[in-house]
Amino acid sequence: MDDNKMVAGKVKKPGKRGRKPAKIDLKAKLERSRQSARECRARKKLRYQYLEELVSSKERAICALREELEMYKQWCSAMDQGKIPSEIKALLTGDEQKLPQGGSSTKTSKNKNNISSNGQG
User: Fold this and answer.
1) What does the alpha-carbon distance between residue 100 and residue 71 come to, in Å, rounded to a whole number?
2) Where is this chain compositionally biased, Basic residues type (predicted)?
3) Per-residue pLDDT for 69 more than 90?
4) Which of 18, 46, 95, 116 has the fewest CB neighbours in a 10 Å radius?
5) Given 3-state DSSP classes, what are the helix, strand and coil percentages for the chain, each rounded to the nearest 5?
6) What's the predicted TM-score (pTM) here?
7) What is the tally of structural domains in the chain?
């Protein structure tokens, strides 16, 4: 019992617990670590690509909305001067074919037609 130490009434054996790592285990651990780092970098690259595409699509949407807002501002200023733009006339009469192709989206014109035909606009 000379090798064992008595601490708080319990016998402790000297030395470390568990198994000692062999050199093969160290090499395997390093390789696993490298592989994990590779995978982490690949995930990070994919995440950044996704975020860049998301930002790009949001920027395009913002540009489209700004153009639409500018068009509405022009319509409002024309109506303030007493002129009714042809696009608005076409929307009010329901002639969507008279609308220029680049003027407004069909989604917007459909919504306006629905509002004006329902009597809510």
Assistant:
1) 12
2) 10-21
3) yes
4) 18
5) 65, 5, 30
6) 0.49
7) 1
Structure tokens at 53: 């595409």
Task: Give yes or no for residue 34 having a pLDDT over 70.
Answer: yes
> Token digits for 25?
């285990």
DSSP string, 92-112: HHT--TTS-TTTS-HHHHHHH
Asked if the structure places residue 112 within a domain, the reply is no
CA 29 to chain centre: 36
CA gap 70, 88 in Å, rounded:
15
- The answer as to whether 32 is a domain residue is yes
Read off the pLDDT of residues 95-110 as tens digits, 9 standing for 90 and up: 665 555 555 444 444 4
What tokens were used for 68? 């639409």
Q: Which two tokens mark 38? A: 């590779």
CA 105 to CA 52: how far, in whole Å?
A: 26
111 is written with which tokens?
Answer: 């919504």
In a domain, 98, yes or no: no
